[in-house]
Description:
Layout: E1 2-6, E2 13-17, E3 28-37, H1 39-46, E4 62-68, E5 79-81, H2 92-95, E6 119-122, H3 125-128, E7 130-131, H4 138-158, E8 166-170, H5 174-185, E9 189-194, H6 197-205, E10 209-212, H7 219-229, E11 234-239, H8 244-252, E12 254-262, H9 275-280, E13 284-287, H10 296-304, E14 314-318, H11 320-326, E15 339-342
Parallel strand pairs: 8-9, 8-11, 9-10, 11-12, 12-13, 14-15
Antiparallel strand pairs: 1-2, 3-4, 3-6, 3-15, 4-5, 5-7
The structure holds zinc ion (2 copies).
Amino acid sequence: MRALQYDRFGGPLAVIEAPEPILEAGGAIVEVTRTGLCRSDWHGWQGHDSDTVLPCIPGHEFTGVVRAAPDLPGLVGARVVVPFVMACGRCRDCGAGAGQVCRAQRQPGFTDPGSFAERVAVPNAAVNLVPLPDSVRDDAAAALGCRMATSWRALTAVAGLQAGERVLVLGAGGVGLAAIQIARAMGAEVTAADISAEALRIAESLGAEPIQLTDGMGGEEIAGVVRGRHTDGVDISLDALGSPELAAAGILALRRRGRHVQVGLLADGWASLPAGRIIAHELAVLGSHGMAAGDYPPLLAAVAAGRLDPAGLVTEILTLAQAAEALPHMAQPDAPRGVRLIDPRL
Ligand SMILES: [Zn+2]
Ligand SMILES: [Zn+2]
């Protein structure tokens, strides 16, 4: 089958003829119809994720059709989505419904061959295959597999967002734009900060108040701009990008007893965590990591009902060869914004 692969971190990406994925006991093979190009793929390619196995076929946010599932014959032919954290279904966390932090988790595109390929293997199919309603089409499904599911869980289950609250979204990439759409749908007032004017235009079209960041702005300066608009601070901040400055800005922009959710990977760690503020203002600093398969139904229902429109965030459908060109440039400030998907059949 055709797949996109790299052999070393930061090395060239090439479309190759790869071996067919291996069907494990209890697993499934999914024929990929759409797969998202995500900043996490760039982090993996850079070698920021110590679990990434070489050579690597990236890709972790996919939808497709089940072609083989010996233990679940009824699902063959079904359209599915798969959480990027593929859970074991047997450990204590999985037992508690928290497969997104499964201790035996596997991730396509990192620990396992990913979905920038015609077909992909999914372990523990009974746990990790989420059948899709007909009304949730391929573009929507691929766009929600990682980024919208992550934002949904971060804002609802982790931050406990309530209607009428003020939400600050830092970084208006895929996760950030999804967070804006979700927060607005839940009746929140949203402010979005980004360095890209293009990203802010999309954020504004989704109902966010834009804040234009400039190169070199620190956490205190960004938080100062937010407080210029919300004197008491925001109820919830979400760092969707993962930078020390944005994470600090998120914490410093909170009202007393506010909640900061860290979703973006802080590859370089925290530059300076405003610890004094966290203690004195009783701030909650929360991590959020994907979403378990069992938590997808309310999100899928919101998409099916038209309350959320993940397909509306999609700006481009790429071929595998185009993705090989696009992936290395994802972290550049002028990289195209919005959600880009790949159709490996093209
Ligand atoms: Zn992703
Ligand atoms: Zn587990």
